[in-house]
């Protein structure tokens, strides 16, 4: 009976193991589903809509084949369509049957002026016509980009409101061999249990088979008796065997039996080990409840608010590009190169620095643009242009932080650094929205703040000149303001140095006025705003005697910028200040706080 059960166990084990292996091999379906996108040749760009990418659930894998370098980038669909507005491209969407379809989109027509005689094209116009098309590589608009040679494979996980752009270099036709694949959930949760259970049943069958053999051997008795030996003729077996040359067998029956058992047991263990080695994680059922994340504070996006201009990762990449270009321009003292990534008050200060370094050998270079660690990113929530981003980067060496504003004028322009200042270590920043929510820009004449942004520069300039006697002094927090005392001390030092030359020959006057660059304001969570402004501090040295002459013996910077070392009419020197304020909302009991500031010499010239 033991043999019967052993055979049944072997048969059952074979069926179970075979079924488990079959689930992982011949019965297992494809792991991915792939859709090929038909694209006509010729267009320099292919835009794959987010609806196509989300035809099936799960992550997407984009594959493109072509000759040479292949470029792909993704971003918000509206942004990409704006970037492609002035060129022809192929747009891949879904038709009524949810199948990919391609259509050619022509560039948006531009308004043509009234008909006028067309002059013959000049050599410059011919050269411009041969200029290669705009390259998509390195655009600040992309959330991320990929570039590979001949074959591009890009793993994605994009929502429906994002799209993918595929191109070569913007001039050559885009690849036409494009496909998208999604993973298919074809797990075999019972393959593992079947294989393991089959191995266990096989082991039981082996054990029953061994017991059956053992039982048969123990039950086997002698079949017949040997002949009787006469008592008078004892036989000496040792002598008889020696005389007859009988050789004793090497092993006993017991040892032979043990050898067979080991031969049977070893294959069973080996098979079990091989079966266990072939089982992967998706070959087992998943029991238990799915882990639920702990509740967190809800982030409520105001109804109708636009999407944030950039993500945090995108802002880090943009800031790194700005810092590299600024460093290259500082080294080469190239204002044209600096203008590709700097603007406004930052660029004006850089241009003056390059002039001074060209004239004064030991004049210090500008401070480098900090990039890491990026502590705060507050993008403007705006779907149109221009767009701006506020960022704060810590400086571990000086234990200060740098606050800055970056702005993108249109879809094709790079972000440029327009405002930059230093934050003190004790500066208390207001509560700001999360980077993935963003904040709206506050209009310059907004009545919802205790002071409109376009009046902050004039008010603070008045405080610099008049101190506590200014009508605006009560609206600004003086306890956290370290700039006003330093400006007053610097003015007094300069005045003392000037008076050493004689009180009856000249005079030195100071004034502060709003700068030439527009303010920028972005909302905070307390209905207030962070406001960046530009202020000019002007210093005039003029003679009080018609026979007197203003000389510059100890002012190499003024001499280098003005192009003269003395003047009978005097000199005027302008310093530019970049300042960031926190302006509370209407009804708040708080005062306007100075968050950060930076000051550089801007210009010097002879008074006409």
From TrEMBL:
The record lists the lineage as:
Bacteria, Bacillati, Actinomycetota, Actinomycetes, Micrococcales
Name the record gives this protein: DUF8094 domain-containing protein
* Occurrences of domain DUF8094 (ranges): 307-605
Instruction: List the transmembrane segments.
Output: 190-211, 263-284
UniProt keyword list: Membrane, Transmembrane, Transmembrane helix
Q: Where is this region: Disordered?
A: 95-134
One matching Pfam family is DUF8094
UniProt cross-references to InterPro entries, sorted A to Z: DUF8094
Q: Which organism is it from?
A: Microbacterium aoyamense
């Amino acid at each position: 009976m033991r043999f019967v059960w052993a055979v049944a166990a072997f048969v059952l084990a074979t069926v179970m193991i075979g079924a488990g292996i079959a689930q992982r091999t011949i019965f297992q379906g494809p792991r991915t589903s792939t859709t090929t996108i038909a694209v006509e040749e010729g267009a320099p760009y292919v835009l794959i809509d987010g609806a196509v990418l989300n035809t099936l659930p799960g992550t997407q894998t984009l594959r493109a084949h072509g000759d040479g370098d292949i470029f792909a980038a993704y971003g918000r669909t509206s942004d990409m369509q704006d970037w492609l507005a002035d060129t022809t491209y192929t747009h891949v969407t879904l038709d009524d049957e949810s199948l990919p379809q391609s259509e050619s989109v022509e560039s948006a027509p531009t308004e043509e002026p009234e008909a006028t005689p067309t002059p013959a094209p000049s050599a410059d116009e011919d050269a411009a016509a041969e200029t290669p098309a705009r390259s998509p590589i390195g655009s600040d608009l992309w959330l991320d980009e990929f570039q590979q040679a001949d074959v591009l494979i890009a793993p994605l996980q994009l929502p429906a409101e994002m799209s993918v752009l595929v191109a070569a270099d913007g001039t050559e036709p885009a690849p036409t061999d494009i496909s998208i694949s999604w993973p298919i959930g074809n797990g075999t949760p019972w393959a593992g249990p079947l294989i393991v259970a089959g191995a266990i049943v096989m082991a039981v069958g082996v054990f029953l088979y061994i017991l059956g053999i053992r039982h048969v051997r123990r039950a086997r008795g002698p079949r017949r008796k040997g002949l009787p030996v006469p008592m008078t003729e004892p036989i000496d077996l040792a002598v008889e065997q020696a005389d007859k040359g009988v050789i004793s067998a090497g092993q006993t029956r017991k040892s032979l039996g043990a050898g067979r058992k080991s031969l049977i047991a070893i294959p069973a263990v080996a098979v079990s080990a091989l079966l266990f080695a072939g089982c992967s994680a998706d070959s087992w059922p998943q029991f238990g409840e799915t882990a639920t994340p702990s509740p967190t504070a809800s982030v409520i996006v105001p109804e109708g608010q636009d999407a944030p201009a950039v993500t945090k990762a995108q802002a880090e990449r943009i800031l790194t590009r700005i810092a590299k270009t600024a460093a290259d321009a500082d080294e080469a003292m190239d204002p044209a190169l600096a203008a590709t990534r700097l603007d406004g008050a930052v660029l004006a200060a850089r241009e003056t620095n390059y002039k001074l370094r060209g004239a004064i050998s030991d004049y210090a270079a500008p401070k480098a643009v900090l990039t890491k660690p990026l502590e705060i990113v507050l993008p403007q929530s705006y779907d149109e242009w221009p767009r701006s981003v506020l960022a704060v980067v810590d400086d571990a060496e000086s234990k200060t932080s740098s606050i800055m504003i970056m702005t993108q004028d249109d879809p094709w322009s790079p972000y440029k650094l327009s405002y930059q200042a230093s934050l003190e270590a004790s500066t208390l920043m207001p509560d700001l929205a999360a980077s993935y929510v963003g904040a709206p820009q506050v209009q310059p004449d907004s009545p919802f703040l205790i002071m409109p942004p376009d009046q902050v520069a004039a008010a603070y300039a008045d405080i610099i000149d008049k101190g506590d006697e200014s009508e605006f002094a009560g609206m600004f927090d003086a306890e956290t303001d370290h700039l006003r005392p330093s400006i007053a001390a610097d003015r007094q030092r300069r005045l003392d140095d000037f008076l050493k030359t004689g009180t009856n020959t000249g005079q030195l006057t100071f004034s502060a006025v709003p700068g030439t660059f527009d303010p920028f304001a972005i909302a905070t969570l307390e209905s207030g705003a962070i406001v960046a402004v530009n202020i000019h501090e002007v210093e005039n040295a003029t003679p009080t005697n018609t026979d007197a002459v203003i000389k510059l013996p100890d002012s190499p910077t003024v001499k280098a910028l003005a192009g003269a070392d003395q003047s009978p009419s005097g000199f005027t020197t302008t310093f530019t200040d970049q300042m960031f304020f926190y302006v509370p909302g209407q009804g708040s009991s708080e005062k306007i706080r100075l968050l950060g500031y930076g000051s550089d010499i801007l210009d010097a010239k002879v008074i006409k």
